[in-house]
Design brief:
Layout: H1 19-30, E1 35-38, H2 43-55, E2 60-66, H3 72-85, E3 89-93, H4 100-103, H5 109-127, E4 132-134, H6 148-155, H7 160-163, H8 168-177, H9 203-217, E5 224-229, E6 232-237, H10 239-247, E7 258-259, H11 262-270, E8 279-282
Parallel strand pairs: 1-2, 1-4, 2-3, 6-8
Antiparallel strand pairs: 5-6, 7-8
Length: 287
Amino acid sequence: MATPASTTTLHDAAPSALHPKLDRLMDHIRGLGSIGLGFSGGVDSTFLAAVCARCACERTTLFHLDTPFAGTPEAEAFERSLDMIGLPVVRIPLDPLDDERVARNEHERCYHCKLLGFRAIVRAAAERGIDAVLEGSNADDIEETRPGTRALRELGVRAPLRELGWRKAEERAVLRAWEFANWDLPAGACLATRVACGEPLTRAALDIVRACEDELHALGCQQVRLRLHAGSSHVAASERDLERLRATGCPSGVDGGVDLAPGLLARLRSLGAPGLEARVRPYRYGA
């Protein structure tokens, strides 16, 4: 594992306009005592971990939930980031499907899942005498659309990026300057979000989603989803990924939309996508 970043070069190549904001964040982190950080490998937790490595490296431990809800890009980003961050990691195996309140996939699923995961992190941190548990929510995150935020508040988990007004675009700019490969990793909601609310979550459904999305990622797509609903499924993709699909031979419809090429449609159906529509729908956040 790499040596944590030197505290004598805290800013490195970070954009100069963000230096004062970085100073405030680092001062805030220094005042928290020993730190346990919930670390997924996404942009938010990677940025916060990288900052901790620069100002509190001897007092910070990362806690990672090994869960079937993580998509392949997020899992790969987690592994890639570890050496650059250089902080100790505690891996906690967790299967949220063991909790029937999560498996039922009702409106409060995210709350129960976040409560389950961070309760495990808080417990593991307490066993190690850690003073503060942190997570990576930022100022762009709206609590009304993220029920898990309530669980974090109930557990006393701190969100310094949100508290100090950090935006995702600012985090990306710093990570890019610090040469983290995942600086432009698209938002990657957990795989449970691909199954319509009210329909039970199963390991089989998650495996289908992961396999199909991996197939699409192999074509160069980044912001792409396989969504399951009432025995059918469809692919949703960002505008950029719609163009990528066209470039791989997916035909355009008369309305300007994109249809999955016959071969790709057949491959995704063979991976288990139920009643898969040929038409690719535009990706919409939270939909």
